[in-house]
Design a protein that fits this description.
The structure is a single chain. The chain is built from 11 helices and 23 strands. By secondary structure, it is an alpha+beta fold. The strands form 6 sheets. Strands 2, 5, 7, 9, 10, 11, 12 and 13 form an 8-stranded antiparallel β-sheet that branches. The longest helix is centred in the middle third of the chain and has 16 residues, at about 185-200.
Amino acid sequence: MEIVGNVKNYDWGKIGEQSYVAQLAKANSDTLEIKDDCPYAELWMGDHVNGPATLKRDGTTLQQAIQNDPVGMIGKETASQLPFLLKVLSIRKALSVQVHPDKVEAEKLHEKFPDVYKDPNHKPELAIALTEFQALCGFRQYDATAELLNASRELRVLLGEDVLQKFAAKEEDAVKVAYERLMHSDQSAIERCINSIAERIRTGEPALLDKLFQRLYDDFGADVGVLSIYFLNYLRLKPGQAIYLAANVPHAYLDGDCVECMACSDNVVRAGLTPKFKDVDTLLRLVSYRCAPANSMIFQPKLLQPTVQPHTKTFLPPVKDFAVSEIRLPAPVREYTLSNPANGSVLLVLGGKGRLPLDQDEPIELGFGKICFLPSKLGRTVKLEVDATGEEFLAFQAMSNDFEATDN
């Protein structure tokens, strides 16, 4: 059944028709008008209470449709929600430096601060680049962090020589001590450090990561999150590349467009690059200080059925909540078989044209911006017909991760 995604107009989104989310949402909806001065940041395609999709035929929320027919929709006798949430993001300005709590911590935080942490679920997530996509993700390798800190006189002053000596002595907790010192520094000291780096760049004296620093400084000023670039890996993904963010992995999306899928949750612990509530102590308590090279953050898909589905690559995170398939059909392909898990899936079309033939109803025509929920009652496989348009057919399919291969 066709569904209409829920648009989020967060400040960091790309503006008007420049936003891929806006283009997608306009194609997806019969009534949406795009405003030239409005940010279009996210398109949600699921049944989360904070932004449920609706059925195109009658405006019923997907959540209500599942409750009305739980067996037919998700193969369960008792009403429940989808375990995953599919999104598209268009990023103009960096999102906050953040982590997501694991299931146990999410329950505790929700119980204690329900106004901030909206639900008791964890929020591991996967981001697949649609355009060139930039992000901070995970702590840099130990020696790389030491080199960056030692090379900046401003950071040496802010953190103190005792912290730098820990790196020189190869002490195991040096990164943890340095990052905690940074995040607990007085705002006046943060301002002196950041403004001094900005002045050095302005006068033409070289500074490490100066272009990234300048962009964040222009948007956020003397926000402590700007200095996280010296601790966290700076990734520049090409279209089709992905990163997986497990619980407690520090990250911040910086620029570009992506398909994102996650456990059905909206829990975020923020500590920088945001005007929203910063829960620094909670982030420092939860954050993983695992140091690893940037290329190790790239998450690889698997070709699960090379004979039956040679053009489907599936990203299988090590959680049961979700998986995402990229279906990329070259122009000569006219017919293809999609898998449909027992509890249904969401299909998002981003390129090409085709249709889903249905036994008793009119076929669903597919093209850019079409979003379909494939209910359990459709069966385990669904036929896809592709039009001869001369362009490849591109779609992403989100589902729960019931596959055996979860060893990425």
